[in-house]
């Protein structure tokens, strides 16, 4: 075995743990929002597909976040106070998710036979903007904790949050 193999295995393990943490955080909020929508619309019968879509959405947005982190997005203010850095990253990654949703909606329209020139009229930008505001609000604490972990170091952060 080469010496690079254990490093690759450790990196894969770390990335999987990162993906799981972000996905669980997002899934919690997206499922809570699904319940909120059902109650708001007085739909008391549980539609499990709604939760399935919330979980899939959490996984997709997790992947978008991880790709954005690999591209080093949002690092512009890491030398500033943690609150500034966290809010900046929440904003930048919120824009990234917004752009992803626009592309996703356009692809869905094209797959279902929509014409390219009608896509801007058919996409509900007001709903996307409202979703983006909610995502931004969900991202602020997420990136706040991630920034605290970055500054403290992973071991100290785990010790602080989980004890030990």
What percent of residues adopt helix (DSSP H or I)?
A: over 70%
Give the overall shape: globular
Assign the structural class, choosing from mainly alpha, mainly beta, alpha/beta, alpha+beta, or little secondary structure.
Answer: mainly alpha
Helix-strand pattern: HHHHHH
- Average pLDDT over all residues: 86
Counting DSSP E segments of at least 2 residues, the number of strands comes to 0
Number of helices: 6
Largest sheet: none
How many discrete domains?
A: 2
Low-confidence stretches: none
Share of residues in strands: under 5%
Rg measurement, Å: 19 Å
Distance between the termini: 34 Å
Task: From the structure above, extract its key features.
single chain; 164 residues; mainly alpha; 2 domains; globular
Short description:
Helices cover 80% and strands 0% of the residues.
Topology record:
Blueprint: H1 4-40, H2 48-70, H3 82-111, H4 119-122, H5 125-152, H6 154-162
Describe this entry's structure for a reader.
With 164 residues, this protein is mainly α. The protein folds into two domains: 1-59; 72-164, no CATH class. 80% of the residues lie in helices and 0% in strands. It is built from six helices and no strands. The chain has helices at 4-40, 48-70, 82-111, 119-122, 125-152, 154-162. Helix 1 crosses helix 2 (48-70), helix 2 packs across helix 3 and helix 3 (82-111) crosses helix 5 (125-152). The longest helix is centred in the first third of the chain and has 37 residues, at 4-40. The radius of gyration is 19 Å and the shape is globular. The two termini are 34 Å apart.
């Amino acid at each position: 075995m080469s010496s690079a193999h254990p490093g690759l295995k450790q990196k894969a393990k770390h990335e999987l743990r990162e993906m799981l943490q972000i996905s669980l955080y997002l899934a919690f909020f997206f499922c809570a929002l699904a319940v909120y929508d059902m109650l708001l619309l007085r739909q008391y019968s549980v539609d499990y597909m709604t939760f399935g879509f919330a979980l899939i959405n959490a996984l997709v947005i997790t992947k978008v976040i991880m790709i954005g982190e690999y591209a080093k997005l949002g690092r512009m203010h890491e030398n500033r106070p943690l609150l500034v850095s966290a809010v900046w990253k929440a904003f930048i990654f919120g824009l990234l998710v917004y752009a992803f949703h626009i592309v996703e909606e356009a692809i869905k329209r094209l797959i279902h036979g929509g014409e390219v020139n009608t896509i801007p009229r058919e996409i509900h930008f007001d709903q996307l903007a409202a979703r983006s505001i909610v995502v931004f609000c969900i991202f602020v604490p997420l990136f706040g904790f991630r920034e605290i972990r970055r500054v403290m170091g992973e071991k100290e952060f785990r010790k602080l949050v989980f004890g030990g």
